[in-house]
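Before a colleague's protein record goes any further, I have to sign it off. What it holds is a sequence and that sequence's fold in token form. My question to you is simply how this chain folds and whether the tokens agree. Thanks in advance; the entry in question is below:
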Amino acid sequence: MNTPLQLNTENLQEIASTSGVQIPAFNRADVAPGIVHFGVGGFHRAHQAMYLNELMNEGKALDWGIIGMGVMPSDVRMRDALASQDHLYTLTTKAPDGTLDQKIIGSIIDYVFAPEDPARAVATLAQDSIRIVSLTVTEGGYNIDPATEDFDHTNPRIVADREALQAGDTSTLQTFFGLITAALISRKESGSTPFTIMSCDNIQGNGDLAKRFFLAFAHSVSSELGEWVENNVAFPNSMVDRITPETTDGDRDDIKEIGYIDAWPVVSEDFTQWVLEDAFTQGRPAYEEVGVQVVSDVEPYELMKLRLLNASHQGLCYFGHLAGHHMVHDVMADTRFQDFLLAYMEREATPTLKELPGVDLDAYRRQLIARFGNAAVKDTVPRLCAESSDRIPKWLLPVVRENLAAGRDVTLSAAIVASWARYAEGTDEQGNPIKIVDRLSERVQENASGNRTDILSFIRDRGIFGDLVDAEPFTKAYSETLSSLHDRGAEATIDALLTQVTV
């Protein structure tokens, strides 16, 4: 048996000839940096980096190469994995019928781990060739005060970065807010045009949020800087969509079986979507030529995705986990879950959406059900259950509030919240422990610990749920579902809910 090749530039041609995997059609030596990206994980590499690679394969955008940048200790693993293979990696997309498409992506050309040399990281960001700084740092990375939902100026790392910038010191910066702002200061002082800050996080109004928080930080450094950033830096909104599970050792083994070693491949579904507001300070790649929807207003598409796809993920994951499922496609193999999600999307989510000319919402909803059931992707239920305290308030509770205000039904939305409350108790219906992965894990578990003595215990946390505990139509539906989950379990509760909404 032949020894597998190491993925790197030198071995690309041999890898292509022996494995059949598509390799970059461009000479990577010709690629110059144009983007610095924070948060180089699976999603970025399956999505934004993929789109850019497609452009480069057409001989375009070769001056828009990506430099990855990390600030967290965990980012060292990605830095080392990519550096070991010349920043190349394999993207495998899996269709519902099991068809695979495999290609090696070459649009990332370097990676800087900022804590090793913050001043060098700032210099990288400040160089004139960098015209976009993009972000996939998750909602938890934006330094949001959970009580006020404003920028947390008291975070010790933020305080230290603010004081360092006020002293003109870039050598100790710790956060991407500090690093990016330091580079903007450099651009301001040199009279250069600032780069665009492009959030690609799964947050409604991600560009607006990034603008608000960067302005808050910049103003805290100096009012003059804050005004300059407000007047000169663009923060486009975007909507991003591609189901991308975490990479497993099995994914690495699959690559090894076709003849080469990839330290960190990426696997995703075959569906992808990116809707991007056309608002940039120094131009952008011609994304629209490779399928990106470049528009003047992203919000209607954001609402469609967040309230149909993302909220439905929460609708399946807690019920599914309680019933003992680990894989998303196993949940979706049960038609009652399909019917429940379709009912939620049609009855409660869709009425809250804005007009979407040319979009067939019925086809989109049914496409989501097919995507969730894609067994080839091997997406896990625990992945969807993680970080619920960030997800539910942004994706599902706006649906609840808009429907309550309009006098519409909230039965199924309330049921999803109740399923989270039951899940947060920390054991499934078989008595197995549930590991709660959430930045507020202790808080939500404490809230859930009172569920059986005070049925509203979980939703009394106004920092998460606001005044929903005072809304009788919501609390009634919520209480009925949580009691049913305790007494009858997830599957029987789903059956009862479907009977209730179809009568």
Q: What stands out?
A: The mean pLDDT is 96. Residues 299-502 form a domain with the N-(1-d-carboxylethyl)-l-norvaline Dehydrogenase; domain 2 fold (CATH 1.10.1040.10). The two ends are 63 Å apart (CA to CA).
